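Table 4 source record.
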Amino acid sequence: MDSSVLNYPRIAEAVETLVDAGGGRITYDIGGGGRETLLAAAARLAAQTNAPLTIVEARSLHSDVRAFVREVQPEARSAVIAAEEAALQPAGSINGVLAVHADVLRDADVRKPLLAMAHSADHLLVARHDYSDTTLDALATPGLVLRLRDLMPSAPRPAPITLTPPPMDMSVALGLVQQANRDVLPDQVEVFDEMAEVLKRTDPAEVKQRVGELRSKYEATIELARRRRAATGPTDLPRTPLDHGQEQSAAHQQHRSQGTGLT
């Protein structure tokens, strides 16, 4: 038996409940700390009430039970006996705190004497598995359930999902650089030269950060370029299209010149 299991919150809570109630029953899974819960609660209750503690347990576990009680509650006055020994006790001879593991009730010859012993005890605590005998259940209340899963740490809750815009793809960034070289005014191209230089770096996190910053600069620069164009007006005079008659006259004159050899 391992006293460290008493540090599990669920077991510590069960011990407190049994002590506060002055007795009760713990139903537990194998490996779920049921024996430790039973003994810790019974020993504390005996120490608090200054009453003798009688523990009925399989003979093979007596030395372990004594060592456990001495460790968790040295001042408790306890005796550990087997079910066969308990069945030989005179009726009404057991008082104080009685702690019984229901596995010892498999033999029908001990059930009736132990039931009488339970009636005479001031405080009754019982531990059992789901398949153990239920003779003492009605006297051992409240009934608590301790499952092995209760000792396992709770799975962490998944982190909340945060939706963020996807990072700019590198091909998109390169396309912005190329577009900038075509669209912006000459005195703004150095901004995009800087972007192209950043893209050559090997640190992906830094590249994404810098590309995001430069993308903002790009949008501001394009807007500035548009405003400058609107303010200065077109730099090339548009070609004035010839009307249909002028086009025919020019073509006719060219044909005549080629036919006569004139230049």
